[in-house]
Each structure stands twice: as structure tokens, then as C-alpha cells.
Amino acid sequence: MAFVNSEYCFTFVDVGAQGRMNDSGVYANTSIYRKIIRNELLFPPPEPLLQRHKEMPYVFIGDDAFPMSSTLLKPYRGNHPKGSLERIFNYRLCRARRVVENVFGILASVFRVFRSPMLLQPDKATLICMTCCLLHNFLRRSATSRKNYTPPGTFDYEEDGELIPGTWRNDLQGMASFNSLINKPRKPSEEAKDIRREFGEYCMTSGAVEWQNYID
């Protein structure tokens, strides 16, 4: 499990959970989860979104496999009509989550040890995974290597709402090493629902993009 930032770099990596564990088990056993529930991450204080008035906390985002909370947002479940708050929020959340997908895709594209399951002892597999993540961050942050490691066109991008796939996708046919977490439905708190709703309303108003109402 990993967290990444908008610069396509890892900010937290936890390796070693058993593959049969569900999402709540993996997430709840990470050190970052314990720091979150203890308020030890030193988040910036809540503040309103652009041209909004309600103070909102800083949050992480994840897919539907994660338990939603006041610090982690995930999509609305089900299909929703075009132009609805739920559909637009899901689209905007998906755009942000695409950064995570690109990071893992580039990692597997460059470090081919991720192309298939590692037939190694857990401690050695953990060391390899952490080393590759550190190398990825170094190559992304170094001015001399960034353009060679991730040249223009590497990442997915959008033009007027149309997704243009990154070049890393051409090199990952049949990859079977990164498995999706097991989804286990759970009921989020009312506070978490209110926070997601406020972000959704922001995406419908001052944070809107002109093509979002037409996304399929």
C-alpha cells in the first residue's frame, strides 16, 4: 500500500501485508493509519474551499476498496445521471486518483521485477519493493534524470475532457504482480458523508471544469 503526491512521487509505502487480507485489514495495519487516528500527521488546519464558506479538513483520496472517513474520501457507489453531483464528484476524484495509477504503472514499466509475483522470502521482497520506490522518487526529483525517466507523454493527461493514455501503458500487457484490494462494503460516518458532499458541491460551482457535465 502506498500514498503518492501530485508530483508522482511516493510519500508513504507499506510492504508486507498478506494478499488475502481485505482493504480494511491492510490499511488498519499501517503506521500511517495509526498516526491519522492519533492526529499525529500534523495536517494543516481546516479551511474553506475556493469561494466556499464551510471549513474543510485536508483529506486523502482512495478508490471504493477503502473505508471512507473524515480523512479519506472515496467515490459514490453506483451509476449516476450525467451532470449530477455524484457523477461529477466521481469523475473529479478519478482524475486525481489517476496519478496513483500512473505511479504504479511507471514503477512496473521500469523496474521489471514487478512484472510477475516475486518468488522470494518476504524480507527480501520488502527490501526490493522499498528500494525501487526510493529509486523512483530519486529519479523523479533529480533534475538531471527526470526527463529521461519520465519523458513528455509518459503520464496520462486530458485534452478537453478526453483521456490521452500515457506511454507507460504500452509496456504492461499481461502484468499480474499488482493486485487490487478486496472490497468490503461498510457504512461511512455522517461527518464523512458531509465532507464528501461539500467537495462535490465545490466541484459543481467554483471548482467546476467546463467539460465535466458531458463525461460518459
Helices and strands, in N-to-C order?
EEHHEEEEHHHEEH
Our count of helices gives: 6
What structural class do you assign from the helix and strand content? alpha+beta
- Give the proportion of residues in helices: 25-40%
Spatial gap, N to C terminus: 30 Å
Give a quick account of the main beta sheet: strands, pairing sense, barrel closure: 2 strands, antiparallel
Q: Oligomeric form of this entry?
A: single chain
**Spans where pLDDT lies below 50 across 5 or more residues:** none
Computed Rg: 18 Å
**Residues in β-strands, percent:** 5-15%
Structure characterization notes:
The protein has 216 residues and is α+β, with helices and mostly antiparallel strands. The protein contains 6 helices and 8 strands; from the N terminus they run E-E-H-H-E-E-E-E-H-H-H-E-E-H. A hairpin with a 2-residue loop joins strand 7 and strand 8 (162-164). The radius of gyration is 18 Å and the shape is globular.
Summarize the structure.
With 216 residues, this protein is α+β, with helices and mostly antiparallel strands. The protein has 6 helices and 8 strands, in the order ββααββββαααββα.
